[in-house]
Amino acid sequence: MLHYTAPPVTGGVEAILEAHTRLLRRAGYDVRVVAGRGDAHIIPELDSTHPEVLAVTRALQAGVVPATFSRLADRIEGRLRDALRDRDLVIAHNVLTMPFNLPLAAALRRLPLPRVAWTHDLVWTNSAYVPFQRVDWPWGLTGRAAPGVRYVAISHTRRREMVETMGIDPDAVPVVPNGIDVLEFGDVGQHARDLLRRAGAAPADPLLLVPQRVTARKRLQLAIETAAALVPRWPDLRVVVTGPVDPHHLACRRYADKLLELRARLGLDHVVRFLYELAGEGGCHPVCLADVAQLYRVSDVVMIPSESEGFGLPLLEAAVARVPLVCSDIPVFREVADGGVELFPRHANGEEIAAVVDRVLRSRSVRHRRSIMERYAWSEVLTSIRGVIAEALLEGGRLCPESPVREDELLMAADGVTAAAS
């Protein structure tokens, strides 16, 4: 048995493959990752830095087809057939359009399974790979579409390049973009995620954060009244108030009860949530400073309606988190913010404050962020991935047209090459 060890490769393509694997497994698919290294079913020759593969690649770069090419391709094909014996579909990332393991590309072309070529990069559009931009065999394996293979592009730009260089029908190449997990990228921990989920604010669109304690001078009734004015325009709005109620101060407790009464009267129990409610009767406040910092990073707007303050720490926090902040026009906020926030008159009502918040939500920067989150959230991208899988299985005879889409067994074969992921 050949033992070969290589250091792990981390790059864009590898990160996307890992995300696809995680998403599909959560959706109930049986995914097996096959690669030359890493956390996968290992076939050493799938690694582009494997000595034999690297020797072939260097010879091809010099314009020579080594005698070992066909033998290596045959060996890889045999090992792939063994690894894929119980699989229904192969999804190969970058293998069929980049030149780092052409014996693997040749082997994949001969497999009897339905195959999807998930295309992140093209050798023919990168001047760094001119020696591989040839139409003759085996260089041409990456320059023309493989029969029976369904190609996927990660952008319309990449699809246009594929059509121009590979002669593929554009209607036959779906575009499935890369995605982003906003909570993961924002380093939002599990506890903060649970707070959002338990508060019913996980699907907020938009999320208005009020990082204040529940005391009368914070004027939190304005947050509720503002929500009432915003909901007709933003039906998926959620307002989250993070601070606690002082259990030893009877006036604070009474104020909190009045806020809950106002919220119920306006029919906003599912819109405005006070996180202290999650503690239960007599429980400790469930929110720590780290949670608040993480909630800033996933909020669309921060609101501070205080009547008076000695400083205004949330103004600093929102600035560092780069979240737009709307606050009452009081002297200390003008002093601390130095023009960097949206102010509303000190005696403004909910309708007037809502107009300011609405203007911020419709600003170019906030709209851009929200658009990215809506278009490229993994939950949205997953729908497109599943569509590609269903179509490939149908075309490959692995799925009956009248059958519902099954959580079929899949394979993801990845070319773990740093350059291919750059």
Helix tally equals 15
- Span from first to last CA? 32 Å
| Silhouette | elongated
Q: Please report which band the strand proportion falls in: under 5%, 5-15%, 15-25%, 25-35%, 35-45% or over 45%.
A: 5-15%
Count of strand segments:
12
Overview of this structure, please?
By secondary structure, the chain is of the alpha/beta class. The protein has 15 helices and twelve strands. A six-stranded parallel beta sheet has the order 2-1-12-3-4-5. Helix 8 links the parallel strand 6 (207-210) and strand 7. Helix 1 (12-26) crosses helix 15. It is elongated and about 85 Å long. The two termini are 32 Å apart. The model is unreliable at 1-9, 403-409 and 414-422 (pLDDT under 50).
